[in-house]
Amino acid sequence: MKHTVIAWMEDKPGVLNRVAGLFRRRNFNIESLAVGHSETPGISRMTFVVAGDARQLGQVQTQLAKLINVIAVKDVTSEPSIIRELALVKVNATSTNRAEILQLVDIYRASIVDVAMDSLVIQITGPEERIDSLIRLLETFGIQEMVRTGRVAMVRGNNGFAGNGRQ
After folding, report:
1. What's the pTM?
2. In the prediction, which pLDDT does 85 show?
3. What is the per-residue burial (b if ≥16 Cβ within 10 Å, else e) of 86-104?
Protein backbone atom coordinates (compact mmCIF):
# COMPACT_ATOMS: atom_id res chain seq x y z
CA MET A 1 0.00 0.00 0.00
CA LYS A 2 1.19 3.54 -0.77
CA HIS A 3 1.43 5.89 2.19
CA THR A 4 1.59 9.69 2.06
CA VAL A 5 3.65 11.08 4.94
CA ILE A 6 4.37 14.68 5.87
CA ALA A 7 7.40 15.64 7.95
CA TRP A 8 8.19 19.09 9.30
CA MET A 9 11.86 19.81 9.88
CA GLU A 10 14.29 22.59 10.55
CA ASP A 11 15.54 24.17 7.35
CA LYS A 12 19.20 23.26 7.82
CA PRO A 13 21.85 21.61 5.63
CA GLY A 14 22.02 17.80 5.80
CA VAL A 15 18.49 17.16 7.13
CA LEU A 16 17.18 15.81 3.81
CA ASN A 17 20.25 13.56 3.53
CA ARG A 18 19.60 12.10 7.01
CA VAL A 19 15.95 11.44 6.14
CA ALA A 20 16.88 9.75 2.85
CA GLY A 21 19.54 7.70 4.68
CA LEU A 22 16.94 6.45 7.13
CA PHE A 23 14.76 5.19 4.27
CA ARG A 24 17.76 3.58 2.57
CA ARG A 25 18.75 1.74 5.77
CA ARG A 26 15.18 0.46 6.16
CA ASN A 27 15.16 -0.62 2.50
CA PHE A 28 12.18 1.63 1.69
CA ASN A 29 11.89 3.11 -1.77
CA ILE A 30 10.72 6.71 -1.76
CA GLU A 31 8.28 6.86 -4.69
CA SER A 32 8.00 10.64 -4.63
CA LEU A 33 9.43 13.44 -2.55
CA ALA A 34 8.55 17.13 -2.43
CA VAL A 35 10.25 19.57 -0.06
CA GLY A 36 9.67 23.27 0.38
CA HIS A 37 9.26 26.08 2.87
CA SER A 38 6.27 26.00 5.19
CA GLU A 39 4.22 28.80 6.71
CA THR A 40 6.68 28.90 9.64
CA PRO A 41 10.03 30.63 8.96
CA GLY A 42 12.93 28.18 9.32
CA ILE A 43 10.68 25.11 8.98
CA SER A 44 10.53 23.03 5.80
CA ARG A 45 7.73 20.66 4.93
CA MET A 46 8.51 17.33 3.25
CA THR A 47 5.80 15.23 1.64
CA PHE A 48 6.85 11.76 0.58
CA VAL A 49 5.17 8.64 -0.73
CA VAL A 50 6.39 5.17 0.24
CA ALA A 51 5.03 1.67 -0.24
CA GLY A 52 4.87 -0.71 2.70
CA ASP A 53 2.64 -2.20 5.35
CA ALA A 54 1.44 -0.32 8.42
CA ARG A 55 4.01 -1.96 10.73
CA GLN A 56 6.96 -1.02 8.51
CA LEU A 57 5.70 2.50 8.11
CA GLY A 58 5.17 2.84 11.86
CA GLN A 59 8.82 1.91 12.44
CA VAL A 60 9.99 4.45 9.89
CA GLN A 61 7.78 7.18 11.41
CA THR A 62 9.19 6.45 14.88
CA GLN A 63 12.75 6.60 13.58
CA LEU A 64 12.04 9.78 11.60
CA ALA A 65 10.63 11.51 14.67
CA LYS A 66 13.87 10.69 16.54
CA LEU A 67 16.08 12.40 13.96
CA ILE A 68 17.67 15.65 15.01
CA ASN A 69 16.00 18.61 13.27
CA VAL A 70 12.76 16.68 12.56
CA ILE A 71 9.95 18.41 14.43
CA ALA A 72 6.87 16.33 13.56
CA VAL A 73 5.83 13.43 11.34
CA LYS A 74 2.31 12.56 10.23
CA ASP A 75 0.92 9.78 8.01
CA VAL A 76 -2.02 11.40 6.21
CA THR A 77 -2.94 8.37 4.10
CA SER A 78 -6.21 7.74 5.94
CA GLU A 79 -7.00 11.36 6.76
CA PRO A 80 -9.23 13.64 4.71
CA SER A 81 -6.53 15.40 2.72
CA ILE A 82 -5.98 17.51 -0.33
CA ILE A 83 -3.34 15.79 -2.45
CA ARG A 84 -2.01 17.36 -5.63
CA GLU A 85 0.79 17.01 -8.15
CA LEU A 86 2.18 19.33 -10.79
CA ALA A 87 3.41 18.16 -14.17
CA LEU A 88 5.00 19.98 -17.09
CA VAL A 89 4.75 18.05 -20.36
CA LYS A 90 6.40 19.09 -23.64
CA VAL A 91 4.50 17.45 -26.47
CA ASN A 92 5.00 17.40 -30.24
CA ALA A 93 2.54 19.79 -31.87
CA THR A 94 2.01 20.31 -35.57
CA SER A 95 -0.50 22.41 -37.43
CA THR A 96 -2.61 19.28 -37.93
CA ASN A 97 -2.79 18.12 -34.30
CA ARG A 98 -2.47 21.39 -32.35
CA ALA A 99 -6.26 21.95 -32.10
CA GLU A 100 -6.77 18.43 -30.76
CA ILE A 101 -4.10 18.97 -28.10
CA LEU A 102 -5.69 22.29 -27.12
CA GLN A 103 -9.05 20.52 -26.68
CA LEU A 104 -7.48 17.96 -24.34
CA VAL A 105 -5.79 20.75 -22.36
CA ASP A 106 -9.16 22.46 -21.97
CA ILE A 107 -10.99 19.27 -20.96
CA TYR A 108 -8.38 18.51 -18.26
CA ARG A 109 -8.33 22.13 -17.01
CA ALA A 110 -4.62 22.28 -17.78
CA SER A 111 -2.85 25.23 -19.38
CA ILE A 112 -0.35 25.95 -22.12
CA VAL A 113 2.73 27.64 -20.67
CA ASP A 114 4.96 27.66 -23.76
CA VAL A 115 4.35 27.55 -27.50
CA ALA A 116 6.89 26.76 -30.20
CA MET A 117 6.47 25.91 -33.87
CA ASP A 118 6.84 22.18 -33.21
CA SER A 119 5.83 21.78 -29.56
CA LEU A 120 3.64 22.89 -26.67
CA VAL A 121 4.42 22.80 -22.97
CA ILE A 122 1.41 21.88 -20.89
CA GLN A 123 1.06 22.49 -17.17
CA ILE A 124 -1.40 20.40 -15.21
CA THR A 125 -2.07 20.29 -11.49
CA GLY A 126 -4.41 17.98 -9.68
CA PRO A 127 -4.84 14.47 -8.38
CA GLU A 128 -2.32 11.89 -9.58
CA GLU A 129 -4.97 9.95 -11.53
CA ARG A 130 -6.00 12.98 -13.60
CA ILE A 131 -2.39 13.75 -14.48
CA ASP A 132 -1.76 10.10 -15.41
CA SER A 133 -4.85 10.15 -17.64
CA LEU A 134 -3.78 13.27 -19.55
CA ILE A 135 -0.24 11.94 -19.98
CA ARG A 136 -1.58 8.70 -21.50
CA LEU A 137 -3.55 10.73 -24.04
CA LEU A 138 -0.61 13.03 -24.82
CA GLU A 139 1.66 10.03 -25.48
CA THR A 140 -0.16 9.53 -28.80
CA PHE A 141 1.27 12.89 -29.98
CA GLY A 142 4.79 12.14 -28.73
CA ILE A 143 6.09 13.46 -25.43
CA GLN A 144 9.46 15.17 -25.82
CA GLU A 145 10.06 15.88 -22.16
CA MET A 146 8.21 15.65 -18.86
CA VAL A 147 8.70 16.50 -15.18
CA ARG A 148 6.43 15.80 -12.20
CA THR A 149 6.63 17.08 -8.66
CA GLY A 150 5.26 14.07 -6.83
CA ARG A 151 2.55 14.47 -4.21
CA VAL A 152 2.10 17.42 -1.94
CA ALA A 153 -0.55 17.02 0.73
CA MET A 154 -2.44 19.03 3.30
CA VAL A 155 -4.95 17.69 5.82
CA ARG A 156 -8.38 19.26 5.53
CA GLY A 157 -9.75 21.35 8.37
CA ASN A 158 -7.80 22.02 11.54
CA ASN A 159 -5.93 18.70 11.80
CA GLY A 160 -2.51 19.62 10.42
CA PHE A 161 0.70 20.79 12.08
CA ALA A 162 -0.02 23.34 14.79
CA GLY A 163 3.40 25.00 14.52
CA ASN A 164 4.46 23.98 18.01
CA GLY A 165 6.09 20.66 17.23
CA ARG A 166 2.99 18.56 17.95
CA GLN A 167 0.09 17.63 15.69
Report:
1. 0.82
2. 96
3. ebebbbbbeeeebeebeeb
